């Protein structure tokens, strides 16, 4: 497969879950991939497995809330493969609390990764994309970017902001060849969600409830999100920018249960 032949991609949070699925798929499609993850061991594991199948990949240990680490990440991809033509802003963190019980530190923790970190990564690659006159940035947002679930503050605040960033930058840089889009998953069957189900009194019931919230009566897979990111990253979506692609099994169109 060669839908991303000669492309150079950065995937943040690529050491597990959705990010790992995207990194693997992009490598199979011919891209050289830099996998950035706060957990460097996880990133290195994925890179080793990609390389074992003939793919091109390199890992960096990166906390995207730190602009200096982000700049180091961008330099690493240039030193290894060349300037990035694709950026997948996948790294994120879930912070849920009662608004009036939320601490300042938890507010900052959420915003520093889910919103500011995305900007730091975008800012770090934009100059090279603009110099090349082409680039695709895909932000992994969430159904929380549009629908509100009680008890999840401030996560949806950051994810709503991410859609605003996506749209603003799409307009700002579209005429210079850089496209910016978002993918918005709902419940995806990843280890992170399984770990959350396991914190409940009845994990099987919690999983079944999450599945039943969707008209398709199941959760999505990481690969299903990766295919959406692949489309938006590739030239197949050349006339698509500023969009938000819902990967949610129909959940966002349900009025109530």
Question: Would you summarize the structure shown here?
Answer:
This protein is an alpha/beta fold.
Number of domains: 2
Order of helices and strands: EHEHEHEHHEHEHHHE
Q: How many strands in all?
A: 7
Please describe the biggest sheet, giving its number of strands, its sense, and whether it closes into a barrel: 7 strands, parallel
Strand line-up across the major sheet: 3-2-1-4-5-6-7
Note the total helix count.
Answer: 9
Approximately how much beta-strand content do the residues carry? 15-25%
The CATH class of the largest domain, by name, is Alpha Beta
Give a description of the structure.
- With 257 residues, the protein is α/β, with parallel strands linked by helices.
- The protein folds into 2 domains: 8-185 and 221-247, Rossmann fold, CATH 3.40.50.720; 189-219.
- The chain has 9 helices and 7 strands, in the order βαβαβαβααβαβαααβ.
Keyword list:
single chain; 257 residues; alpha/beta; Rossmann fold; seven-stranded parallel beta sheet; 9 helices; 15% strand
List the helices and strands and how they pair.
Elements: E1 8-12, H1 17-28, E2 32-37, H2 40-52, E3 56-61, H3 67-80, E4 86-89, H4 104-114, H5 116-132, E5 135-140, H6 155-173, E6 178-185, H7 191-197, H8 203-212, H9 222-233, E7 244-247
Parallel strand pairs: 1-2, 1-4, 2-3, 4-5, 5-6, 6-7
Helix pairs in contact: 1-9, 3-5
